[in-house]
Amino acid sequence: MRKLHLEHLPPKLIGVTLFSLWLKTVVILLTGFNIHIDSLLDILLILFNPIGSLMILLGFSFYFSNKIHKFIVVMMMVLVTGVLYGNLLYFRFYSDFVTVPILFQFKNVGGLGPSTFELMSPWDLLLLFDFIIIGVLLKKKWIRTISVTSIEKKTYLILSGILLVITISLGLIKSPYLFAESYDREQMVKTIGPFNYHLVDLGIALVEPFNRTLATESDTDVSLEYTKSRANKASDLFGVAKGKNIILISMESTQDFVINKKVNGKEITPFLNSLIKDSIYFNSIYDQTAQGKTSDAEFLIDTGLYPLDSGSAFVRKTENKYKSFPHILKNNEDYYTTVFHGNDRTFWNREMMYDSLGYDRYFSKRDFDVTEENSVNYGIKDIPFFKQSISYLKELPEPYYARLITLTNHFPFLLEEGDKMIPEAATSENVVNRYITTVRYQDEAIKTLFSELKKKGMYKNTMFVLYGDHYGISEKYEQGVFELLGKENTPINHVKLQQIPLIIHVPGEEGMTISTIGGEIDIRPTILHLLGIQSKENLSFGHNLFTRLENHPVIFRDGDFVTDEYLLKDNVCFKVENGEVAEESHCEPYKDIARKELGMSDDIVYGDLLRFLE
Ligand code: GP9
Ligand code: MN
After folding, report:
1. What pLDDT, on a 0 to 100 scale, did the predictor assign at position 149?
2. 293 Cβ closer than 6 Å to some ligand 1 atom
3. Which of 194, 379, 461, 497 is surrounded by the fewest CB atoms within 10 Å?
4. Is the domain of 198 the same as that of 309?
């Protein structure tokens, strides 16, 4: 038998590594990211799109000597695995992909705290499988690294380049608005692959600073014209809360499904359920936040603009000029404006952003007595937080506007036994089971706040606005909620779970439930309506909820939307009525509105256009 001459074989390390990384990428894309597949083309794209970029990455190793070549290949494996795993962890909570700005707000997305550990799974170790196999193959010398000629290098490079061009072209054929809708990251990852997506994202981050330099005063005209034309009809409630103090409560991770819901015969939110009877309760309001979570909810309410497509405006756009809610309140009725929150001043860059938004005072962690005993998870528990806030509230000049941001009901929903006021639920998702107890605790805290305010005579002259800031249960754990609600896990039911409660309580006013659909962006015009303020500083995309048109879409940051009749989820059009897939043409006009509004809002924020309205 002839002896096998290994040294004449091709550079197999590259081949084996390319195959293993491709396989890993494809398996993760198909199983880890809940990517919506609606045609064979989608699968073909997913199979094809990582090849070109992986070849280019691994190709770098050719430019190093034989010894270092091996090392570079391993480094590329670490890089690719790290990028995939980072995205996987991020996706498990945020149902989104990592962007460059996220890397600069790492500590705000849970860092390496309990939130991240909760998201890990022992199965994740499988990601290291190829390292072991390739390690063994190298050790046994079953695969070799041999140098390549310059012709081979060139051919490899040209081939990788051609594959890359084909990938991008196929992506554009599949989704012509791929780059115009770069905020639709699922579309981007599905069509051009995760590595090309990261490159595009990096490119966007690099050119972003030029937006401001190139912006001119006339760029504001389109948005001014667009937002001016919206109807702001009169309603009986105009001015009913004129001159009152305003207490806004941002309820951490509070979804609307908890309202009036019992678990094991016990209400999750007994206080809110009773408050609703004497309040205006909007039960069809959607979470519109993106990667900035709580800070995005604050941004939506304070500015009436959409949050950024990537990263948090609180972190990225503090230098901008804003026409914010505090500015409007101050200019029209001379309100004193404050925020109360038990976390560090730097979290979400709040200290700086509140300055830009015109707040007079930020009561943060350093203003509270925070001890190990009165804290859990992210910081001070809601009951001591509210109790301590009251003494500050009492001293504020009136009328005041105070936003109080709760914290206890935060993922992964940790609470000591003694604070659990109802037993955990018994679904298949522990996260959901614990969530019930932290929401219940928050409800008790709000009850305490109300009764203390009543005792101190601070209740009657105040308008209360309570809203859930964003979802608490991400798609990964949603099955537990469906079990609680006895509902099926369908796209339409998932979208409905994104509803957050909005409760406006004006003492003495009659209660009513309003089912008009809306979003967090509509909260500011609604409050201004109740305050009787007709502000001219209205370059905002919100509508007053009392007169909002049902067929105007509630727009989500990824370009999806919901109207009274149709909803778009992952670019599939559905009928709201029965959850059936609808003809794409029904969604087209709303898609255009979504693209237009998100585009205009981004132009305002990235171009700092409000500075021209001084
Ligand atoms: C932290 C609190 C929670 O200060 O706002 O932040 P989140 O993770 O929900 O954005
Ligand atoms: Mn939050």
Report:
1. 80
2. yes
3. 461
4. no
